[in-house]
Design goal:
The complex is a heterotrimer of chains A (397), B (500) and C (398). By secondary structure, chain A is α/β, with parallel strands linked by helices. Chain A has helices at 14-25, 56-59, 69-72, 74-90, 147-150, 168-175, 178-190, 209-220, 234-249, 371-374, 377-393, and strands spanning 2-10, 30-34, 95-96, 103-106, 112-115, 118-119, 133-138, 156-161, 197-201, 223-227, 253-256, 260-266, 269-275, 282-291, 301-303, 308-310, 359-361. In chain A, a hairpin with a 4-residue loop joins strand 15 (301-303) and strand 16 (308-310). In chain A, helix 1 (14-25) packs parallel to helix 9 (234-249), helix 1 (14-25) runs parallel beside helix 11 (377-393) and helix 7 (178-190) packs parallel to helix 8 (209-220). Chain C has 398 residues and is α/β, with parallel strands linked by helices. Among the domains of chain C are: 4-85, Fumarate Reductase Iron-sulfur Protein, Chain B, domain 2 (Orthogonal Bundle); 289-392, Rossmann fold (3-Layer(aba) Sandwich), CATH 3.40.50.1860. Chain C has 21 helices and 8 strands. Chain C has helices spanning 13-17, 19-23, 30-38, 60-64, 71-85, 90-96, 98-107, 109-115, 119-127, 165-171, 173-185, 200-204, 208-227, 237-246, 256-261, 266-275, 296-301, 306-311, 340-355, 367-377, 384-392, and strands at residues 159-163, 189-191, 231-234, 263-265, 288-293, 317-322, 361-363, 381-382. In chain C, helix 3 packs across helix 5 and helix 10 (165-171) packs across helix 11 (173-185). The relative contact order of chain C is 0.12. The chains are: A alpha/beta (397), B alpha+beta (500), C alpha/beta (398). The B-C interface holds B 232-235, 237, 257-258, 294, 298-299, 383-391, 394, 397-398, 400, 430-432, 435-436, 478, 481-482, 485 and C 3, 5-11, 28, 31-33, 36-42, 45-49, 51, 67.
Chain lengths: 397, 500, 398
Amino acid sequence: MNAVYDVVIIGGGMSGMMAAVTLAGKGRKVAVISKGDPVCCFSTGCIDLLATGGDPLEGIGTLPDNHPYHLVGKDAVAKALELFRGIMSEEGVPYVGDVHANRGVLTSLGRRKTTCLVPETMEFSDFDPDEYIHVISFHKMKDFYPQYITSRYPNAGHSIFDPGVITTPGIAEKFENRPFLESFLSWLGGLDIPEGRIALPAVLGKSLAGDVYREVSAGCGRKVFEIPTLPPSISGLRLFGGMKNALLRRGIDLYWGRGIYSVEKLGNRIEAVTLTSQGRATRVEGTAFILATGSFVSGGLQASMDTVTETIFDLSAYLPGGREGWFNDDFFAPGHEIEKAGIRVDASFRPVDTEIENLYVCGSILAFSEVMKYRCGHGMAIATGVAAAEACGGLAQ
Amino acid sequence: MIRTDVIIIGGGSTGCGIARDLALRGIPHCLIEKGDFAAGATGACHGLLHSGGRYAVNDPEAAAECIAENMILRKIGKKCVEQTGGLFVRLPGDSKRFRDTFLKKCEEVGIATEELSPSRALDLVPTLNPSLEEAIRVPDCSIDPFRLCMLNITSSQKRGGQILTHHKVTEIIKEHGRCVGVKAREEATSDCKEIRGKVIINATGAWGDQVAHLAGGSVPITLSKGSLVVTNHRITNMVINRLRPASDGDIVVPNEAVCLAGTTSIPVTDPDRIGVDPAEVDIIATQAQEMLPGFGATRLIRTYAGVRPLLKADGGDGRAISRGFRIIDHQDGLFSILGGKLTTYRLMAEQMTDRVMEVFGRKTRCRTAELSLEGQEELSGYPLSNRLKTLEGIVCECELVTADTVERVAGQVGARHIGDIQHRTRLGMGPCQGGFCTYRALGIMQEMGKMTPEESMRMLREFLQRRFKGIKPALWGDQLREEQLVEYIYLGILNMEQVQ
Amino acid sequence: MKFDFQHCIRCTVCVANCPVFKVNSAFPGPKQSGPDAQRFRSDDGASIDRWVRLCSQCKRCDVACPYGVHPAEIILREQTRYGAGHFRPLPYRLFANNYWLGMFNSLIAPLANILTPRGFVKRVLNVFGISTVTPFPPYRFHSMNRSWRWKGRRKSRKRVVFFYGCFINYNRPDIGRGVRNLLASLGVRVVIPRQVCCGLPALGNGDMETARKFARKNARILAGYIDKGYDVIYTCTSCGLSLTQDYPGILGVPDGKKISENSYNLHEYILKLMDEGYIDPAFAPLHRRVAYHIPCHLRALGIGYPAARLFERIPGLEVHILEDNCCGLAGSYGFKKKHEKTSAKLGADAARAIKATGPDALMSDCGACKMQLGYFSGIPALDPSEILRESLKPGGDT
């Protein structure tokens, strides 16, 4: 079974999907191959640009020279994030935020997490410290302990609702059910909540989250905001689910749940990749290929006892020294050395140290991205995904 | 001020065993331990209830003690001893002469052996190296040292024994040249307590000399660090030993849902400052790989190190020294009990308690070998698959620990920190190493009112640091991916660094 | 393979995709039932995890997992181990032998169809643990088995044997004959071979032995044809999964790999013929709006949605693809009283999503999906081949 494309993107995470949308926008025929679902379950859904007290976009200038943001450039980063916002609005998951100023969302520990673009359902930055917060939790739902929040705010209250299920996917599913939503709203209305805000764990629906959120806000007449939860994170699922819909809407072919079995090269060009499937392999041909397979957690990079390898094309991966130095002794150190590992690329996002001509690389697989150190995860993925797509769009004419 | 008859310093297997024995013989006592139970060598050992095979050739006396105690412990601790059996595996190149001596000595000492052909051995343990020459089956067992200590303490508690964990002995009080009591400082509050007793037993293992010094005495021990690695799952269901003179990395023990592979032997001086070197991990992995070829590809989830307190001899690497134990009467009311190993803890406790009885002029005999360990009804026992009966109310999904168990143990004697709960329930000892469940367990304890949200946050932070120390030497492959995920959660979703 | 579960890092993406976990709090989810629990199981220990039967084997977790853990497979092995070690209640035995049940009902078809909707019959079935919420489909006397040895008249370069599966065999042989005629009209020589149940119902009901028996029999017959240059065509995506995944995999039948590599979904095959230039069909316009419910097992096959690609060529046809929901019937899973609530909840949710697209018909390759969604939505439930035939208008009787 043959399939021929202008660009084949390997990796269905944030960077791969943004690259796909960019290329489809240029009229290219695009395929996205993903070994499974991306890191949706442990994403808050927020887009981190750069952790800093000041202007995060300008803050890019303070990063080391080898950081992938420099390959994109500040203006392009801002444009990429705008593109992202537009896509998500279209999918019914609007984001608020400003690339020139970070904002906070409230975490389950009652602290603020600094981020840049925030789903509308989690907006918290205009909170007045004296404002009253009423935390709604769900009976027997694991991993959400309201006291962490109520103990930190002098003006806080707490109520428990019993949804009949105890898991985040179960509760989110229930919220998309009209009778359940109405019973919740009537319960909420019956509580005597002072003026202020209502906080809930992020379970107000999955694909219909926007509608559910608006109804709950309207129904109780207060500002409502969600708090990101531990896995499975529904807010993360909304983000990645919305992006996936955006790909489908643009007629991009998805080869989902298939890994890559082998790579075909002709001279210095990759001709095709073969996918695993039951029975026969599917051969996917492309003029250009984009590698967006992510870091260790996603399987794009693999660490053995003494080295790091790139798992699909066997590109040479930059390794920051021997295993003894990979991790700091302090778990909370701002970034461990191993975070620098990855694929080094040139200004056009093409991997250095390789003869291959038609391969581009983006996302957290890039060397020096140091996602945890700089808190730039999704932002970097979006920016480099778009930039790599722009770079390769010219080739795949 | 606490007044009692016997003060036991040290809550490892020896100390807990003595507490049980004293309790069964009706002697009031108080046990003081600076950490939680099994904080020393007991909690960092191989989890192996020796058949004695390992010592048969070089130390037949120790071997005889082992097999006798092995038989006793499996009888009195049915639900905390897993009768896995063990194999001594002879690979191509291993000395046949050693094998002959081994068999002869085992017979002399009374250790039942069975010679197995390679195919039979592979039937029993399919992951064995297929080119093995033969295997010899011995009655090794697997034991959880934390549970063992808790069960012994149960007997003490039931009969009025006083337990002070997280208390460090700072002074041994002497009056007219006799030891009459101790002062102990509570770790959390820095409160000082005074405990008075007629006999003081120093059962502090690697800290034995430090404690003896408090009374102006000393004990002849040498310290040897041993490191072990923990695999993600049971790659063998029987204990695997190498049939050759004892050396590094030649034992793999199935323990609960993991395997413990080790060990090494490195002389050290300070029992409080030890860590696992990456080089040790490499040695252990290489040796284990020879016996179990899949070991190299097996995910490791953690490493740990403990310090063996060995009776001093001149020279040697700590391995050739007898594992036999000794009781020292300092002639001033202080006794020190030294050496030994987990397998013979009960015998050590019996002999120590016999001495105490002599001091008090009492004749009550020891019954610890006859009576079953108390408190076993709460354990799910073996086989492991018993725990899969129902999965309701699970807090730790890796190790199947329920919320009920957490709440029960949180209320148990001496349970202070989240670490205590982890040792006693295995919460957080699985593949994610507490990544998810610790947050949950702390949340539960905080909701139970056992600690404030601030305290639980602090504990969570401490826990994450401590955990990381043990995992760091094993971070590659799947465990490195796991670690990245845990980072994304604690630093990403929860933003924990902002917690002071 | 044995220790694949060690790759699990608890990312919970399998859990987020599990339909049963979402609606039934008693099911611990694929992560706990699979890689987590596997650490406590040993091959020679007895299986006591009753709750493992709550898994419907929809395989969505396998598709979602990016690390090769295969939770569904781990759970399936445990289900068969549990089944082997325990007395299996009547519903499990009945549905494991769905082939014989169907054959019997097909023989007495008019009577069976009168009896099954009757109140007292339903009550009896309920007592034995069988759910009657989703109605049993009518049985047909002229099953596909009665077409054994039918060979298309044409001699052709393209030769196929049609593996039709129990649903088409006994309940919708009209679809089966339609497929046969369609392929024949495209110039393919079609043979209806002797065949028995693919074995998936037995496997899904914890009966490995029966599954293997069925599979071995089919494997012998199909391998014989493959050696003579035939390709195997299936329309039921669960049969397809069984042939391509389980035959070489968990069932381990001889020639399993050969069968796996030479079995094609009908629409996949038609696309292949078009790709090779063997056929260039003229698709007549169809002005319809259809909701295409993707069966869970089609997603698991890893062949994409070939029928959807064919429909792109039909002018005027509006197709809404719905791949996010499991219909809940999951073969015989929803026909057990124990799973009634789960099945009904999922069926209602999936039906709601279908109705929201305002279609005049719904399509699904899987017989169970057709039954379940047809009932819960009240919208006519078609096989994709029926739409295809409407557009291609081949000759031949139905």
